[in-house]
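Q: I'm writing up a methods section and want to include an example of the input and output format. Could you take the sequence below and give the corresponding predicted structure tokens, formatted cleanly so I can copy it straight into the document?
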Amino acid sequence: MKEIKDISDFIMQSQGFDISSYEDSFLKKTLHKRISESKSNSIEEYSTFLKQSSTEGNLLIASLQNNYSEFFRNALTFAVLERIVLPSLVQKKKKKEIRIWSAACAQGQEVYSIAILLEELRNGGNEKFNYRIFATDKCDAQINKARIGQYPSSALNNVNFKRAKKWFTKQKDTFTIKPELKENIDFSVFDLLDKKISSPSASIFGDFDIVICANLLFYFTPKKRRQILDKVSKTVSNSGYLITGEAEREILLYVDFKEIFPQSGIFQKKMDRACLC
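A: Here is the clean output for your methods example:
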């Protein structure tokens, strides 16, 4: 559609942001939302408004950068992590650091959920281990929110009372992550579509035991999905895990990964024999 291409070209020229990377239906849905909210009567009218407005370009980009997340979002995924994957990693790594990359962490709920599981495992067992979580997102504002770790009570629907009491400080209707849960987390801005960088700079060499790339892939075109998967697969250790969202499982089933537990969204690279032990 000519109007969408014109909008895409304008955003690329004015903001340096490639909206053509996004999957067609998602891009059109987002544009229709911005057309409505800007009170434009058509995509042609919106295109004119966009080029005349000093703020609309940023609003469109923000609408495309999905930042929705939840604590312990997929119950099955986190159950498998808690009971199988993380204990297995602790046994396998022994005294070596467990390294995890949350590749699109939004406001941090996913990252803190993983950290809670690791802390419970570390405090509840005989095995002592170290871990480091590298939490990245393309959006500075999201990374800042994740680093602060402050959430309304409604965001804690999937967090049980014991965890909420141990890991959050409550003030009126606001729950803030306690500083000790942040000690092993490194937050930074990172663009998964940047061809020049393969992994967060703080991680130095990648080699992650777990890479979480969940609820992100279906927003992009097949070409960009492949680019993202190529990047993250190179950073996962040979026996490491790639975690995706429930709705994205089909994407990984047709590439070089196998799901280690049905419907879990937890994958390993295909090898001659199973890596999980």
